[in-house]
């Protein structure tokens, strides 16, 4: 077969001609479609999404399975199992009614409060989402026990220290929280504890109820003019600062990550840790519990505090070494403490800390106002429903928060990225031993205007899923790659084309492997290299090794390298036709006229072994490979 130029030429047209208007404004695949398992056999979640090519719409279906039907453009999910027509959402702690209403409008809601860890583990495999507050431990065991069905954990509040984020990420389970609705409640509780402690309100109340009248015992301290150190100048810390300023306190703060201008705007000075704790009369804790903040208040740090300091904790009990606090209270370094949170909740009945006369305690009530609980319930219910529907979550804790407009414009490229990954890995001889993958994006966009995390995740998914039992999604892509010793690096090449589209082309390069299709190796260094573009909203393969091709990535693909001579298309087309294998697309690319060419043939059906052998026996065909998309 000879062609007029060295460029590629589509010689068979696709049975469905994509409309130019479909590019690039297809309805975006949802976040869940990026999050979703696409393992080919086991349905993971009962709500998944399909993309109908005819309407280019995201459709919420029940359990779906990846198939490679030519009827739809990828990602291509069809209803697999209608066993779970609505998702099951387990609510394991008390949640406001308004939030429950939102959940009930979308799924089957089961409110089971006070489950033991074992009960939770046995229940969880029938749940798609779990909503918790601070009292439920979402441990690795819980995630394991879900057997892949649990897709979203919603934390109805801020602190996610009760959720094993690492395990959730490994299992590809999205974690969302409700970070704003209880801020004011927590700040108000902090102020309530501060003022109550300073004036011995709780102790005086208890003594009166015991029939005493102890006016001189409960002389308090004034707040005005005193220095308050806010440890953790985030949402709650800032609100406490604002209120404390209103009480006439001098407020300083320590927070390694807080922007100085936010502090300045509130008239708060940001200071180093030691300065904060050594100069403050009152210290109020508002940092999250993390490995870095665990027991950060200990014997050593108490020793650096001003003698007679007063401590308020509405953050997390674990940031304090509670035994050290008891010692500091006994020695008088800490004059008083007011605590809403404890390392163990509820604390043991014989807790020395709780029993201390100069300690005021509340049972984790920071978020417990009617208003906050209503707000948190709605905030988390909407986040969970949104995640189950596949919408982007603005409060995702363990996945990149990608703005909807970015998802929208990247959607066809996301499909392309996964297909290229799938193709590239199938070109590796033996399909394994891959250590290093480079993804090269050609784009006219400034690097700051192109968020490639979704694309990288989908290339990773495309590479890993065909060769392992893992399922990969946006949550666990980087983790899974790392775990498999696969290094995915990215490169950007600025091209002089229209910046209207985010990406001009995506190239996937697998280094240091043998290929079962030698022509896929690039000329210069022998790496497997394929490149694709989005054309009219559809993913196209545009280069294999050093051969330009142009084939729509749908169905299955046969790549042949042959002597570039007339009649090749007819011969192969006939062989396929005899077996009733429908060709959807064909393209020939060559490097040197009448020498070597690559023929890329898109086929709707999977040809049987004999048909493929017949193709291999065509005299001019030097090598060929059959690839599933
Ligand atoms: N008692 C209760 O019922 C409630 C407790 N909380 C807890 O309060 C804490 C803060 O909540 P938000 O202000 O909403 O969170 P946030 O994320 O807005 O603020 C936390 C701040 O702590 C800072 N931080 C992180 N590491 C730090 C360190 N080593 N030293 C100092 N600062 C550090 C962060 O930079 C951030 O600015 C969380 O632990 C949360 O769980 C929140 C609401 C209710
Ligand atoms: O939002 C938080 O971090 C809280 O600590 C509130 O906890 P809760 O939801 O009341 O168990």
3D architecture notes:
The protein is an alpha/beta fold and 629 residues long. It folds into 3 domains: 88-177, 3-Layer(aba) Sandwich (Rossmann fold); 181-361, Rossmann fold; 404-628, 2-Layer Sandwich (60s Ribosomal Protein L30, Chain: A), CATH 3.30.1330. The chain is 29% helix and 24% strand. The protein contains 19 helices and 27 strands. A 7-stranded parallel beta sheet has the order 13-12-11-14-15-16-17, with helices on both faces. A 6-stranded mixed beta sheet has the order 19-18-20-21-22-23, with helices on one face. Helix 4 links the parallel strand 8 and strand 9 (152-155). Helix 16 (453-464) packs across helix 17 (477-483). The longest helix has 23 residues, at 404-426. The protein is elongated, with a radius of gyration of 31 Å. The two termini are 27 Å apart. Residues 1-30 and 35-83 have low confidence and may be disordered. The structure holds 1,4-dihydronicotinamide adenine dinucleotide and 2-oxo-3-(phosphonooxy)propanoic acid. 2-oxo-3-(phosphonooxy)propanoic acid binds at residues 133-135, 156-159, 182, 364, 366-368.
Instruction: Tell me the CATH superfamily of the largest domain.
Output: D-3-phosphoglycerate dehydrogenase, domain 3
CATH topology of the largest domain: 60s Ribosomal Protein L30, Chain: A
| Radius of gyration from the alpha-carbon trace, in angstroms | 31 Å
Shape: elongated
Bound molecules: 1,4-dihydronicotinamide adenine dinucleotide, 2-oxo-3-(phosphonooxy)propanoic acid
Q: What's the count of strands?
A: 27
> In angstroms, what separates the terminal alpha carbons?
27 Å
CATH secondary-structure class of the largest domain: Alpha Beta
